[in-house]
Design a protein that fits this description.
Number of strands: 6
Order of helices and strands: EHEHEHEHEEH
Helix content: 40-55%
Number of helices: 5
Shape: globular
Structural class: alpha/beta
Strand order of the largest sheet: 2-1-3-6-5-4
């Protein structure tokens, strides 16, 4: 199997790529286990997020998309809805595991509305918008990412 290829999408009305600590951290973590095919930033606009996600799903260069930001209760937190509009199958165990494990560090984890799911043969995982939370969530799912990507590529042997 070749390297896993990741797209990192920061969702924020206020940040830029030059000032994007959670996107930076997510990029570093993903680079430890695969290659970064794309790193971009969009505003909290639902249609913009969804269209960017569709672009990644259509790309043969992307196995897995990590988003950071826009998963909370604020009016402009549209990432989960944008993700739901793109995925064909939910992967609730991933989002549940991230919430369950990070809730051990902070009760605010239960305010995360992050979604995970599959579109075509691409996995999309919503991550929080803070570097420390990104780290905690990434460590939770790191052990299963390679297998998840292999299954989506059609390799089913354990």
């Amino acid at each position: 199997m070749g390297h896993m290829k990741f797209a990192i999408l920061t969702i924020s009305d206020t940040r830029e790529l030059a000032n994007d600590p959670s996107g930076d951290r997510l990029t570093e973590l993903a680079a430890e286990i695969g290659e970064i095919a794309s790193r971009e930033l969009v505003s909290d606009d639902l249609d913009l997020i969804a269209s960017k996600l569709r672009e990644y799903v259509a790309s043969p260069d992307v196995d897995c998309v990590f988003t950071t930001g826009g998963t909370g209760f604020a009016a402009r937190d549209n990432t989960p809805e944008a993700t739901r509009s793109v995925i064909e199958r939910e992967a609730p165990g991933i989002a549940e595991a991230m919430r369950r494990e990070t809730a051990k560090h902070t009760p605010f984890a239960m305010l995360s509305r992050a979604v995970s799911g599959i579109a075509g043969n691409t996995l999309i995982v919503n991550m929080p918008g803070k570097p420390k939370a990104v780290e905690e969530c990434f460590e939770v799912i790191r052990p299963v990412l390679k297998h998840a990507v292999e299954l989506l590529r059609g390799r089913t042997e354990h």
